[in-house]
Amino acid sequence: MTTIAIETLSQTGAADNAQSLASFARQPILNRDGMLCGYEIKVRAAALPPVEATDASQAADPDALPGRACDPAQQVARGIIRGLVQGDVRGALTGHVAYVDVSREMLLDDFILRLPADRFMFELSSAFEIDDELIARIVRLHGRRYRFVLDEVTQPNETFAKLLPYAEVVKIDVARAPRALLPKLVSVLKSAGKLLLASGIDAQPDFEATHALGFDRFQGYFFARAQSSASRRVSAPRHALLNLLQLLAGDPTVAQLEAELKLNPVLVMHLMKLANSSGLAVGHKVTTLRDAINATGTDRIARWTQLLLYADGRKVALEDDPLLQLAATRARFMELAIERLPEAGRDEADAAFLTGVFSFVDAVFGGSLESTLNVLTLSRPIQAAILRREGVLGGLLSVVEALECAQWEKVAALCERLQPLTLEEVAQMGLAAGAWAGVADRSAEGLERIED
């Protein structure tokens, strides 16, 4: 999950006294194959007092009519929409569709037409008060090819019945919905041609149960939990990756690296792709393993190998692999965040990246997290951070976990202990980390596409 704060002018009109109208967080949505197919955008909006139309308020909402009093709800709604169309937010979506909760104010304001219909799906709360004006507006937006999601469904009610004809997707809160009702509800909705999204799926058994019922989409972090070793294929044998990581930790020579890599042709193939696709081999094509090692460098090979642990064994694009995306985003966030803290240098940034990337290692290997970390020969501060959330690294790991769950109050409280970090800075770093992970295969500064 990544977050971003939308900034606007304060009521005094001073740009340096900007206040945050809203913060965003993304949560992954997976398809039946367990691959990313979208993100839900979680919005935390600020409450604003009513203000009269002034030069300052006009600057805060440049689309408001001159001389008209500013409606705080509309001002926040427009701030949310402006944030959604930012290039940085689009980058964090990594080409996937965004599911976004919309308020009545957002729906009724033509400002919403700034959101591309092919990139956004509007979530309609089952708590909406339905009237003729709202239905007419939904019909008009539907005619413009906007798509709707019926959100927070636990069981049919009057609002559900009125909104269902306009919904392409029905999101069911499986934790709150009566279990005995689910099979019939799924059957009826599938017969009506609706796509079904199961939310709150944080354990593998829940995914398997809803998958068997016929759900099409799944929202939750079940894919990042420790599972049986057979539940996820990897793109190279685990022992080969672990041996390579242990060797890299000891500052190996090129000859030592070459000998280790030659033991596994899959790793050689990946490294040759890495060297030739990233622009590192300037002026000529890399044709030998030694040239590939020299062109890539041990630091880059180490990061590539760390993330390769999470890559799915199928031919999956990096931006569609949910576990690799989550691990890469968390690692990059940790690296960016620690650089804002006092007396943090290159070694601390490397340790932060390692802490983030290996915090999910039990999802791949299963078994004891502590024993796996010992095999990786990670330093004590890194192990303490991952196992017990201790130290500065543990604090930053707690921050990124809170971001992933949109626990805004917890993020703010943790930032108090990690000054000078602020919630707004943390949010921006989360966004930057998500964008980095999602487009890394197209950037010489990031990670290259990992495929068999």
TrEMBL record:
SMART domains for this protein: EAL
**Domain HDOD per the UniProt entry, residue ranges:** 234-424
Protein's recorded name: EAL domain-containing protein
List the source organism: Paraburkholderia panacisoli
